[in-house]
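ok so i was messing around last nite and threw this chain in just to see what happens. nothing serious, just curious
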Amino acid sequence: MTAASRHRPPLSITSSIPTKTQPQSLARRLLLPPHSSDGLPPLLALSTNAHPDLRTELYDFIALALRAYVNPWWTKLTRYDKEFLPHINRILVHVIEVLEERVHRVQLEPLAFHDLPTIITQHYVDFRNVQSKLSTSYATGGAASLSQMFGQIQPHMAISPDGQIDAEYYRQTVDLILKACLPEEDYEPDVERVIIREVVVKILVNDIFPKITQPWFIHKTILDLLGPIDDDSYTASHLPQSSSNDTSFFQSMIIIILSALQGFSGACLALIHSYKQAITTIKLVNQSPSQSTQEKKAPPPPPPASTTGSRSAHTEASKRTSSLPSSRAQSYVSSTTSLPRQADAIPASTPPESLPNNQPQDYAVIPLHMLSEILNVQGRFAATLFFSALSMTSSSMTPFLDKLLPYLLQGFLSPSFILNIARISKRTLFPNGYPGPPPIDPSPEEQAQIRAKLVAWRGKGPLSHLLPVIVGPDPSETFSAALDPLGDPQCNTRLLVFILDRVLVALFPELTR
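result:
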């Protein structure tokens, strides 16, 4: 044994085992250059209350979209350029930053409580008017279908007469959005802009729109929002009722007394909990800043683009942007919230600076009218009285409701809700990591079962006692009539396009110039 071998330190067991490197995420492998030690660019820097996992989900969504729609054809052109996808990712991160800034500037309350309920109300009114004119001379002797007549009442240049989406409309819209979001050096190269534009248009037109306009998808979404429905109560009417004479009168009386005591104690506990919850909510609402204070602190809107070609681009966008159909003269809708006529462009929401700070917003008026139109309360006297009393009560509580409804909206758009939406979107568009074959739609029997569950919904707690007053003695018939205007995919497509146009105009007011 040599002297060198005698003084060599012994090898430990852990050092002799080869260390296994931790696998990198798909986003790091695709969206960063090879052998880069840098981290991914920060996302959602302005959203301090965002969920910690939302950034990971967004990067995973971006990596899956680029791997599915860009990587297949780019690797055929060159297999050695690994900088292209990271460069596209930097552009997308910049677009997301601008969108985040604009979302923080948007006044969500007028959009959620004025404009969107007005669009939905108009959809129900027009659908029921068209439905009443089927098989008459208004339908060219019964030859015109419901979707064709509805398209004549609510025309839109993004939708063809047969109900097909025009992809060119959204190409121009996304191109103008990219021009407002990207710096000049990133917008000028046609290749980068066209790739990003086509990826967004492909996901919207081919993947999202055909899915969410299906009636069964809307029914399932409403069921998910309502929460779990008791299957026992749903199947109780379909099961044979067996009567047993073995139970004695004394046992029946004991069961009735114990059930009454349990119901009474449960009602008392529910009242105590509701009282405590109401007191806490009222305190939080009163402590929240008023609308006028938020408007004073709101940053100024972004200035329009100063390039020479921006005015012509915006003019072209204004020509390509269709308007909402003209709304009927109704006393509850003011001139600032009524829908424009066909020759006008989609209106942007009235800027807060043009309204007095002490003017009430009446956030509860149009949602109440939308609910009454959906449930069609005009044909039921008790429901009409109930909604009239509810409208008068809400009018007397307008200052408080103008604080309560925005508070509830912020609670609904919680960080966990937004994270759940991102995860559901990723699983829907990329079920196995790739946009493989689309998932199989439910069979007609399964779709009928989803609708039947929604029609059989009766609510829980105090709502179940008020339901007969609101929807009448036959709730199933009322709910079935309320779902009919959402039963045609082509009509749903027009509703979706109008809603999307309104949201885009709220985010990018320069689209109407």
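not much to say yet. The radius of gyration is 29 Å.
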